[in-house]
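pasting for ref
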Amino acid sequence: MSERESTAGEEAGSEAPTTVEKLRGLPWGVAWSVTNSVFAEYTFFGSIFVLYLNQLGLEKAQIGGLLSLMPFLGIIAVFIAVPLARIGHKRVFVLSMAARTTTAVFLLLTPWILLQYGQGTVLSYVVVTVAVFALFRATGFTAFYPWSQEQVPDTLRGKYTAVKNVLSSLTSFLAVMAAGYILGADPDLTRFLIVIAVGVLFGLVSVWSATKIPGGAPARKREAEESAYRGMVVAARDRNFVRYLLGVGLVTLATVPLTSFVPLFMKEQVGLSSSQVVWLGTGVLLGALVSSYLWGWLADRYGSKAVMQWGVYLLPLLPLAWLLMPQQSMWSLYVALGIALAQGLFNTGWTIGSGRLLFVRVVPAEKRTAYMALYFAWMGIAGGLGQLMGGWLVELMPGWQGRWWILNHNPYTILFVVSMILPLIATLFFRRVKADSSVTTRQFTGMFLRGNPLRAMESVARYHRARDERATVAMTERLGRTRSPLTVEELIEALHDLRFFVRFEAVMSMARHGPDPRLIEALIEVLEGKEPSLSTVAAWGLGRMGDEQAVEALRTGLDARYRSVQAHCARSLGSLGDRAVIPLLVERLATEEDVGLQMAFASALGSLGATEVAGRLLALLQSATNRDVRMEFALAIARLVGKEHNFIQLQRRVEEAEPGTALSQEVTRLQGRLGRAHQTSAEMDEALDL
């Protein structure tokens, strides 16, 4: 058990579940989320309930006020959090969810109340039903939030949330499609009741699933209560927590009313039918389905804050799109579905990022009861105000209709404008919230602007699916060729693979990848290691990357035990332009007898333009008998005078044509240039004519 888990257990006065128990409980957590998502879609949440209230004849302000009851009652968390901890978070949650689900059954009696007692009575009946439901819900989730922090290991929280969201979104997608089919284009109350009844059944299954999740044991120490109350005071003074709450509150104010009133906007202004409005939910769910795992993977890998901030930056684009979309048009449904897809993408990024940051960084595990109580109460206030604000803004200018430039304006315009502004203000608070990773938002953004991010993510997935050494080597090579920062983790992982050829390819791929601080550090570690075959390639790779961060390690490598490592360190220092190493290389070239090292030192000094070794290089060239060795020294001399390109071109002509002809032409051109520069003499002309 980790230190964090042990500390969390101390707060409750009981042992937290072990990592093994947590892992065994994860499928049940997913099962609860999947079944509860259907309950939520079919009863008090989502567009179906809003359309149901509209069908009952409630006005928009009444709908907003009614929906505000559910978040507003979350404020009771501050008063009941500590007693609930003594009862046991799991016990309270299961009982509250059972009572919540049972309360939803009373929605089925609404048409009968409307028929028997009229509009005024049905409004009061629905208000009482929603209030009771909200009370049980608030009690349950007051227990759920601190319990949920001990359900999942932090290292898996992002991926777990992503998998849970994927399966929940897929289930909700199918549920919404079925609901749209059941409701039809012009539904009556009976069709709504069928959908609600199915939702209640799924709610009961979700309660049963929750009983299988570990943790949430009762607190056994009365001192824990006093500690929790003190914890609320500490939480209220925690500036990082307060900044997070302010940012989340603003985003909640902006997004909660959209969930309630966009379905009415689509029906009244855009001209979609009730079933089409319900089916828009499939677009949102599909966006969440395709992006959940990616957002979760990114949050676990690079930190929650960057993912959260990107979600916030994208949210204002949604109300802008609704303002610009065509209305009463044959294209309206398709555009609305496209916006709904984007809504699912953006909301999922925001939800996963902000939720993971809350559990991993913002809330201390040992004070989770106090912190989570304040969080849930604050979210209730923000959500309730959001619903009231939404209804009020829509009712503010009921007859406002028209078009200005490319923007449609109607009673929902002010709501959309406010929903664009509030997330941007929230970013000012989020910037000062402590991150759970060293990766900044700017660095996170840059990862998708360098290399090929799509190919990188595909390569990462295929790398993890590779089954044998040959496939892993091929995927490792592919990782490097993407030149994307998204593959850095896998390249470093491959560098520590048990299989030699995978490690070898990892070094090669890092060199192809290009400069990255973590990759350079990894190659330096290999250079200083005890595998000469890898150290040699690492020295070459550091030179190929062209980053001065490697210079000091390469200088140290000149004293390595193995000559091959020394040689490649010297060549890389030459390619990096390290002129400070010239005196050392000159000294070693003067005394070195190994031909391989002589060539490496000569090459480096030639690249560095160390003209003081020209005499030594000419002597080595004259004494060399091997063709390749002579060419190496000749190239070094050509580099000294800045004529590398000319030398290479001449060498190619000699290889491709008759050597005598190519060399004669070059000598003739040289004589002409020397003559025009008045730098020739009789002895030189005679030598060149030989």
